């Protein structure tokens, strides 16, 4: 199974999302969106590509907040993945999202989060922490990115670097 992991798209309309994302995400089995999708139009577009599992972020309005929770626990086969947007300053963000899922009785194999726009993949105490960065807004990051997550005998993440549009002011 191949899952596209994205966050912080910050797009206002589906046409812009289609132009920027369609070719990269087409063919995946599912899409995880870690918040700040901004508009339901973009969710609808993503759902035409594959099933979408998302959470609301701090920049999402009431319509997205009604549609998506702020935190989810997902199961894909034998893998358990926590999904959240994250909050607060970038420094310490991985630790904060890890604590969000620390009380899950069976534990999690991975936690997907966004918020900082800073892509990164690391393992802490057997838990894979994945921040895909943003595929559309490289604010605070050297490039735009998303992650492809292969689910086989292990979880295998691959950070995919995209072209670097100008950073937002």
Number of helices: 4
**Strands in their spatial order, largest beta sheet:** 3-2-1-9-10
Report the sheet with the most strands, covering strand number, pairing sense and barrel closure. 5 strands, mixed
Order of helices and strands: EHEHEHEEHEEEEE
Shape: globular
| DSSP strand count | 10
Q: How does this model look, in words?
A:
The protein has helices at residues 14-25, 40-49, 62-67, 93-100, and strands at 2-6, 30-33, 52-54, 71-76, 79-84, 110-112, 120-124, 127-131, 144-151, 155-162. The longest helix has 12 residues, at 14-25. Helix 1 packs parallel to helix 2 (40-49). The model is unreliable at 165-169 (pLDDT under 50). Helices cover 21% and strands 31% of the residues. The chain has four helices and ten strands. The chain is of the alpha/beta class and 169 residues long. Strand 2 (30-33), helix 2 and strand 3 (52-54) form a beta-alpha-beta unit. It has a five-stranded mixed beta sheet, with helices on one face. Strands 4-5-6-8-7 form a five-stranded mixed beta sheet, covered by helices on one side.
């Amino acid at each position: 199974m191949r899952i596209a992991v994205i966050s912080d798209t910050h797009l206002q309309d589906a046409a812009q999302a289609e132009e920027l994302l369609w070719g990269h995400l087409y063919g995946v089995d599912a899409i995880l969106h870690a918040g700040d999708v901004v508009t339901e139009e973009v969710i609808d577009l993503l759902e035409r590509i594959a099933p979408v599992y998302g959470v609301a972020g701090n920049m999402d309005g009431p319509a997205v907040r009604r549609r998506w929770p702020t935190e989810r626990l997902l199961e894909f086969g034998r893998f358990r993945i926590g999904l959240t947007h994250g909050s607060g300053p970038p420094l310490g963000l991985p630790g904060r999202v890890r604590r969000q899922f620390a009380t899950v009785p069976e534990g999690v194999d991975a936690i997907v989060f966004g918020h900082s726009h800073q892509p990164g993949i690391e393992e802490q105490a057997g838990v894979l922490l994945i921040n895909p960065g943003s595929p559309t807004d490289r604010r605070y990051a050297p490039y735009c990115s998303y992650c492809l997550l292969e689910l086989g005998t292990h979880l295998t993440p691959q950070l995919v670097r995209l072209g670097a549009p100008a950073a937002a002011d």
